[in-house]
Structure formats: C-alpha cells, structure tokens
Amino acid sequence: MTDPPTVLRSSGAIPHAAPNRPQRPTSMPSPPNTGAHRSWGAMRWFEISPGFACNCRCSGCFSCSAEASSQMDWPEVQRWLRWGRAKGAQHLWLSGGEPTLRRDFFKTLRLAKHLGYQRIKVQTNGMLFSYEGFAEKAVAAGMNEVNLLLKSLDPKVHDALNRTPGSHRLLQEGLARLNHLPAATRPRLEGDILMTSRNCQEMPELVRWYSEHGLVHFNVWLFSLVDQGSRDLRRLVPRMADCRDALMAAHDVALAHGSTFCSLNTPHCAVPPAYWSMQFDAAGMELAVVNPGGHVFMLETSSIEQGSFVAACDRCAVRDYCHGMRSDYLEVHGDDELQPVSAEDAAGFDPRGSVLDLP
What is the extent of the structural domain holding 147? Predict the structure, then answer.
C-alpha cells in the first residue's frame, strides 16, 4: 500500500477549553492555521469505514450498499489498520455502514487491540448488540467505546427515520445488554443524535433519558442533504432558529447529568457566545478517514464538515474560528440567519469549541 500524499490541514490541535464550559480568556486566542502542511504521521485518530452494508435504510444516508465495490476485504482492512498505527494513530474509530454486520468484525477488533490502538470505538445503530453474547464477545475482542445512533424516544419516529421497523426496540435491547456488562469491562457509551425537523424539539428529553441510561457524551449532527440521492428530503432539514432553544436546553441537560455535549454544523452566530464551547473543532480531532476504495481524507476536509460563508460573515469577529453553514442548508433556508458576531459580543468568550474525543 502506498502512502497517501500530504494534505492541507491545521498546523496542530489548539489547546481546548474545559469541555462544554464557557471560558473567558483575557484575549482572543490565535485562529487555526488552516493553510499549513501537515504530515499524515500527526494523526491521533484513524477512522476505518470498511464497508457500506447496513441493516437500516436511514433517510439521507447512502451508506447502505452491500455491493462488493462498497466493501473492503479482510486483507485490505488489515493493511489499513497497520498503516494507521505506522502513521501515528493512537485510537481507532470503526464506522460504516454498520460495522457489526461484517464477518471480520471481531477479527478487526482483535487486530486493532494487538496493534496497540488504545481507544477502539464502534459507531453503530446498536441492533446486533441485542443478541445474547454479542456485546461480551466484542468487548473481549477489544471494543472499549460505543457510539449509538439516536433518532427519537418515540419508536415510531425512530423507526421511520431509520426506515427499519423494530430498530428502536433492538437498540433498547442492545443498550440494556451493554449496561449489564460488568463495570470493569463496560465500554464507554456515547450517542450520536441526528437533528431533524421531526425530532429537534425532543432533544432535551432524549439527552436526559439516555444520560440516565449510561451515556456520557452526545454529538448532535444537523441532518444533511448531501446523500439524499433522488429523494426530496428538504422537509427534514430543521431551521436553526426553530431548534436553537432545544439545542441549548439539551446541552444544559447533559451538563446537569455529568455528560458532555458537542454540536456539529452549527455556526457561531446560531447560539449565544456562552454556548460556544459545544461547537465542534473538527481539525482538533486530528482524525484521518479511509473509505472503501482507499479514499483517505482528513475529517475537517469532508463535505459534511466544510461550510459556506456569506457576505455577512466577513464582518464577524469570530470568522476565523467558524466552519460556516453547509451549502445544502443554505439552499433550503437561505442565509438570513447568518449574522455577524460583534467584537463586543465575542469579548470574554473562547470561540475554539470542543472535540468529539473528550475523555
């Protein structure tokens, strides 16, 4: 396997503020240097998406193909696992598709552990963990973190957004089995919330319930039209102004339960400065991703993370820290919500945000 070329990215991880708690620096921190060259050897996280096969058909997701061209074979998975460690990756993020469906799932975990990956995270819809012994076998193989996909507490809404009847029930059964594992071996549990027009108002209750059932961190992803294909899913893209209060309330609920909270794809002007600590710092993850076909990229360069800027953004005091707003959102809702933050309003608040790998 040949090494990928050097890519453009941040010159390094900026020291982060305490998770989700607004800091008041005496002066504005230096902006990230997004034009500096960085070696692949600097990565901390390596995400492998070995295949796009999935047992759900979620609205807005293309990662559900079982075609051979959409899968890595086991020798390729091995090569990439070794490549990541050789390039300095300390932690592994196993995604998909649905990674638990693969026949080499447990072999992948065992090899990752053998190679020295410290944190081995599985991003999953949680359905296969409902089967007896599956969670125990995954933990024994090396899995020590789990990111569960959360859509709604309402089974009808969850199943509808997954386009998979029974997926909510299986998620709940899987979570119960994960929580039943001995405390010494129980993996760290996190939740990925896909924020849509159908569930945005229930986010505070969603975070409360899952915090009380073992989850310690939450990532909120704004629904994207990037992968909608031929279907018109614009109705599922919520207007930020309509879900801002629920987003902030969910953040507060998480903190009240001792959990942490991170919001992706929300520009700084979408929430008050006191909530900037929940903004996602993609470059700070130092995460490289590889998909089937050997396409490798740094997380912050993906179409999901790269936003667009409008004329008003040029007058914003925190423009250099903001990722802007995704172009697919602007096509649906326009840019009237994007208003420049004044230097006076930004004074005393740290705009740098947080990363997803909070300890």
Answer: 7-346
**What is the C-alpha separation between 142 and 106, in angstroms, rounded?**
8
Q: Which 3 state secondary structure label does DSSP give 338?
A: coil
The enclosing domain of 107 has a CATH number of 3.20.20.70
Residue 323 lies in a domain: yes
Q: Give me the helix-helix angle, 134-141 and 105-115, nearest 10°.
A: 30
pTM of the model: 0.85
The total of structural domains in the chain comes to 1
Only one residue has tokens 């602007």, namely 330
**CA 335/CA 327 separation, integer angstroms:** 10
352 falls within a domain = no
Position 214 confidence tier, pLDDT thresholds 50, 70, 90: very high
CB-based contacts of 206: which residues, under 8 Å, 6+ apart?
150, 152, 153, 193, 199, 250
Do strands 188-195 and 145-150 pair parallel, antiparallel, or not at all (unpaired)? parallel
Read off the pLDDT band of 358 (50, 70, 90): low
